[in-house]
Every structure is written in C-alpha cells, then in structure tokens.
Amino acid sequence: MIRVPQLRVVDEEGSQMGVMPTGHALRLAQDRGYDLVEVAPMAVPPVARLLDYGQFKYEQARRDKEARRHQRSVEFKEIRIAPKIGKGDFDTKVRRAIQFLEEGDRVKVTCRFRGREVSHAYIGRDLLIRFGELIKDHGTVERPPVLEGKSMSMVVTSLHKPKSHEPVGRPEADEVPTTPVAPSETDGSSGPAGPTIQTGPPPAAVKAKAAPVARPAPIDQERVPAAEPAGG
Fold first, then answer.
1. 101 Cβ contact list (under 8 Å, min separation 6)
2. pLDDT (mean) for 203-230
C-alpha cells in the first residue's frame, strides 16, 4: 500500500507523467490495466511506475539468475617458496602468482624454513619483499610478511576483476536488459525489501490462440448389400 499523498509517475513506456496525487495515479493505472509500483521511495516526491507487476517480478528473477550465473567467487591461492630457492624456480613461482592474480584471485606467498633456517628469517623476508615488487602491477600487498612458527607469509590482493565463466552459446532471444529498480521499505515483515505495489484490477489475461487442428472429413461408407442366401 502506497501511503504518500503524491507521487512522481512514470508510465509503462518509461515517460515522465509529472507529479500527481496518489489517488489520481492509482486510477490512471487502473484505467490502463497496470499496477502502480513505487520504485524510488526515498525520492522527493517518491517515484512510482505503471507496470505489470507479474512481468516485473519475472524479469527481476531472471536478472538475478543471470547475475548468479556470471558470478565467480574469489579464490585463495598459495605459492610456496624456500629460502634457498633457485632463480629459475623463483621466476616460475612469480609467473604462477601473476596468473592467479590476473584471474582475480588472492594469493598467499609462503616461505617455509627447515631446521635452523628460521634463525635467518630475514632471508625469507627479503625474498617475499622482492616477490611483491615483481607482481606489483597485478596485485597489492594486503598483509606484509609475517613470521608464524617456521614459515613467513604475505597476502596479495588482485588488481584485476574476477573472470566470469560465461556459458558458450547464443543468448536467449527474449532476454532484454532491464534497469534494476530500487527497493522500498517493507511493512515490518522479515525478508528483503521489495517495491511497494498498489494493485489495481488485474489486466485482462491474454489467451494464446491455439492453431486450429485440421480434422479429417467424415468418410461416407458405401452400403454393402447383404449376401443372398445360397440355393433357391
């Protein structure tokens, strides 16, 4: 239920209709066979739109599904190095870290010490600092090198956006991008807020006309004369 006295109304085509009393806007929506939905309750005055609420909910659900399909969670990758790592192996680890960062993942670079190597922890710190310098174009150090037991690690955050795994194939023909609308305040019930809707008489249902099914013409069966009795 829309409780404000007046609204800025947008028609079903997206054209501005100006500011009008809420009652007048509701009658206008009813006359056109649409619902009156408050799409921007925080505006002054609030904005309402004439639309088919059922179609609106369908398109909103489809947009949410599409967003989930393209969404990719950020993963946490770990690169391990040793204080005595060779230059070739070190460069390989750097390239691998860059690959992870280009995919949008966070990377934890860990230098593990064995035995008394931990007494020379500065060697691991220098390696990690050098590692961070080589990947700075792809990631920023979120947590500097920290010694934890017999390992020292740092965390790097990617400067790239996570890559989405888009399905291969042509998009559906009926998929038309729509602009999301702002939710409104609910009446205190639990759950996410949704748009305030003032429902008028439901629009006339559009009945799909089924193609007529061709029926075969009745076949005139010829009358077969009864067989004459034998003899006579």
1. 107, 135, 138, 139, 156, 158, 159, 160
2. 50
pLDDT of 83: 94
9-13 own/partner pairs: CB under 8 Å, 24+ apart: 9/36, 9/47, 9/48, 9/49, 9/50, 10/39, 10/47, 10/48, 10/49, 10/50, 11/49, 11/50, 12/49, 12/50, 12/51
Architecture of domain 6-70+185-198: Roll (3.10)
Mean pLDDT of the region 157-163 = 83
CATH architecture of the domain with residue range 76-158 = 2-Layer Sandwich (3.30)
Name the phi and psi angles at 92, rounded to 5: -65, -40
DSSP readout, 167-215? PSSPPPTT------------SS-SS----EEE--SPPPP----PPPPPP
Every domain of the chain and the residues it spans: 6-70+185-198, 76-158
